[in-house]
Amino acid sequence: MTMVNTVTGPMSTDDLGFTLMHEHVMVSASGLFDSHPDLFGPDPKAIAIEALKQAKEGGVDTMVDATTFDLGRKAPLLREVSEASGINIINVTGWWLDVPRFLVGVSVDQMAAEFIRDVRDGFRGTDIKAGLLKCAADSEGVTPPLEVMCRAVARAHHETGLPIMVHSFPTGQVGRRQIAIFKEEGVDLTRVKIDHSNDTTDIEYLKWILDQGCYIGLDRYPGRLVSPHMRTVTMKKLIDEGYTEQLCPSHDCVCTGVLKQREDGTMPTEHNISGVNRHRFLYMKHEVIPELQEMGVGNDVIDTLFRENPKRFLGNL
Question: Quick one: which of 91, 111, 176, 272 has the most CB atoms within 10 Å?
Answer without folding.
Answer: 91
